[in-house]
Amino acid sequence: MNRKSFLQAFVPLTLGAFVANKLTAAPPVEAVLPTGMPPFLKAGDTIGITCPAGPVSSGNLGNCLKAMKSWGLNVKYGDTINKRWQRYAGTDAERARDFQELLDDDSVNAIIFGKGGYGTMRIIDQVNWDKFRRKPKWLVGFSDITTVHLHVHAISGIPTIHGDMTSGLSLYDKDSSSKSLRDILFGKPVGYVLRGHSRNREGNCAGVMVGGNLSLLQACSGSVSDITTEGKILFIEDVHEYKYCIDRMLMHLKRSGKLEKITGLIVGGFTNTREEGDYRQSVEDLIWEKVKDYDYPVCFNFPAGHISNNLALKLGVRYDLSVSKTDVILNEKPAEMVVVPTNKDSSVNRVPI
Questions:
Q1: Disulfide engineering: 147 pairs with which of 120, 173, 238, 282, CB 3.0-4.6 Å?
Q2: Check: CATH 3.30.470.20 for 29-188?
Q3: In the structure, what pLDDT confidence band is assigned to residue 279 with cuts at 50, 70 and 90?
């Protein structure tokens, strides 16, 4: 859904009666933080950990806990830690309830998901997002957690973070992935200057970034979690897929119009792809075949996805993107402040930029 990049709410002056020869005053106004942006973290805040998909044991959270401690953060485990039901971290009801409790918990300032795999789609429609819309918090993950990113963007436009989960975190000063996540959580705008790729299509663009795991982009298509891509920068990545499956998913994106009117395409890691028979096309070839007739910039080999250098990205915020064969520059655009009437009887209407 297209949104205006700048919103102002004006309260017109009453043009009617004069009282003591004075025009009726407009209600007072106040500046509000950028629309829909969750508050950034500070030392002493609490991170919640829940598992909406695959299981995680507390014994495997050592590096994550060290990282959180080094960032000055507390950690609150959800009930799904150490649980297992079939391939999931508890039953659907248990995983949905655990996510809901941390989502609504005022003492939890952000949520880092424990693991991907599969299962988030099974519970996403059981989650009530009303309080989250009023009091958003950062939600962090990737892979199967793309379901959360897509759903939140579709229903609210509130930004989320595509980044490492508990198994990928370490002391941030020794790990670029963890450092990038720490920087975002504590309020540093995204800004990356990266090496280019010989297959890049050069150009400059701007737009809100959306996307994530290609398999989940297709799986959520046609559902309430489906997103529009027109006028946006699309990011895609995937892992462990046969090349013909990648081709089929890309064809779906193309046929559904999701590749036609984007402003730019960022291709992250497509790792551990599998070949079948004589299917020898590279992933770059498969992607280029679908976008060669368009004119927007295309960035290959962006360091995000199922790779060791999984740089964190805010999804749902605006970026400037410059792509060449020698370098790639991605900078988050400053979010505008919003002016709204002061009215204690009504909540701020947060509209995504």
A1: 120
A2: no
A3: confident
